[in-house]
Amino acid sequence: MSGYWDPHIERMPPEELRTLQEDRLKSLVRYVYDHSAFYRQRFKEAGVEPGDIKTLDDVTKLPFTKKVDLRDTYPTGMFCLPRSSVVRYHVSSGTTGKPTVVGYNKGDIDTWAESLARALTSIGLGRSDVMQVSYGYGLFTGGLGLHYGAERIGAAVIPVGVGSTERQIILMQDLDTTAIACTPSYFLHLIEVADKMGVSIRDDTQLKVGIFGAEPWSLETRKRIESATGIKAYDIYGTSEISGPLFTDCSCKNGIHVWGDMFLTEVLDPKTGETVEDGERGELVFTTLNKFAMPLIRYRIGDLSIMETEPCECGRTHPRIMRILGRTDDMLIIRGINVFPSQVESVLMGIPAVGDHWQIIVDRDGPLDVMTVRVELVEAGFSDKIRDLLSLKKKVSKELKGVLNIAANVDLVEPGTIPRSEGKAKRVIDNRNI
Ligand SMILES: [Zn+2]
Predict the structure, then answer these.
(1) Are residues 290 and 351 in the same domain?
(2) 206 with 322, same domain?
(3) DSSP string computed for 82-140
(4) Confidence (pTM)
(5) Which residues pair with 65 in a beta bridge?
(6) pLDDT tens for residues 233-254?
(7) Domain range holding 146?
(8) How many CB atoms lie within 10 A of CB 277?
(9) Quick one: which of 16, 149, 178, 256 has the fewest CB in 10 Å?
(10) Cα(212) to centroid(ligand 1), Å
(11) What separation in Å is there between the alpha carbon of 4 and the centre of ligand 1?
């Protein structure tokens, strides 16, 4: 088991942590009320004032915020500090509508790095490690986020960014990279390219840890990555609105530790907005407890997960969230049934003849939705025998139907057919125009 970055905070008794959260929530509410016309207006509409927040449970009296609020107040309408206090901006392009801008003061950048320093330490990284940051640098938070976190624990950083995969593999060998941070789909691509170059990640590199995120991925993909390369694959979570990547699972792999002194995490029924029980699935909602340039109150992040508040085996007492199950807005409704791309992934990655790349294509045939899953086979799975292919196709269809409760066409394609991406993989092509 790995050590702690900040043992006092990370192992704080739950009651003490709760008191700390309560104090921070009360000052935050007062702070946003005093510094932001946006929040004053929202509080007024909800009929709540800072004095109404007396305990942690009173958080439910506060209004939600959403991504649309950041767009509507573009660029800086939700900031609580003047421009002169801001030291960094990150901007997310957003596939629909206006971009969103997040601002940080010096303390916010520091808190962000501190969150990742705890996380990276919890997976066994430290001064002797070399981290290749293969997330995008720039307006996207992945690159700089991991960069600052890794520097804080004293690791050496290779700020390679995305792309130039062959060069990445050469650098990995020449500079003895021990950890890489990127999207899981990019890492699968990197394994493929290494293979073509005659480089085995397991035997020809020092890589021991992968930190994968920015897109949902299944446990089955984790198993695949680990058995193909011998590394340990960890999940990283966070979005630009709450700073960027912030949290990982620890070496116990028992859920992602969300630091309670920094964030108040709620899980709600996405339809009713009511809190769900510990262990039940719902939408994640974060309140930033010590961010100052652009704090967020009850921000509905749109990701679905399950929260556990029991302390982890590693001794950390902060809440854990389970593997992200998908986004409320990634959910496809096909013939009235909710389908998450992560469900499809977990079925496919459990079938050995299926390769690492796949897509869901949704069309409309008259009034009916038709879902097709395009699946790339591994070289060895690509049989010349039609009978083998038919039986594999049948197996994939049957397993998909078992999990999704809806029939899907299965289209088996040759290795290398589906376009590779260097950032987030494009898993869904929805041709329905709805
Ligand atoms: Zn743990």
Answers:
(1) no
(2) yes
(3) -GGG--EEEEE--SSSS-EEEEE-HHHHHHHHHHHHHHHHHTT--TT-EEEE-SPPSSS
(4) 0.87
(5) 299
(6) 999 999 999 999 999 999 999 9
(7) 1-329
(8) 9
(9) 16
(10) 17
(11) 10
Dist. CA 321 → ligand 1 center (Å): 11
Report DSSP letters for 54-69, one per residue. -SGGGGGGSPPB-HHH
Kindly give the distance from the C-alpha atom of residue 318 to the centroid of ligand 1, in angstroms, as a whole number: 9
Is the pLDDT confidence value at 271 over 90?
no
**Domain's final residue, options 263, 298, 329:** 329
Claim to verify: residue 131 and residue 214 sit in the same structural domain: yes
Q: How far apart are CA 380 and CA 377, in angstroms?
A: 8
Residue 252 CA to ligand 1 center (angstroms) comes to 5
Domain stop point among 281, 296, 329: 329
Number of domains in the chain: 2
3-class SS of residue 290: coil
For residue 237, report the distance from its CA to the centre of ligand 1, in Å: 15
Nearest C-alpha neighbor of 177 from the set 156, 197, 194: 156
Query: Where residue 172 sits, what CATH number does that domain have?
Result: 3.40.50.12780
Residue 313, pLDDT > 90, answer: yes
Question: Quick check: 331 pLDDT over 90?
Answer: no
pLDDT tens figures, 68-96: 999 999 999 999 999 999 999 999 876 56
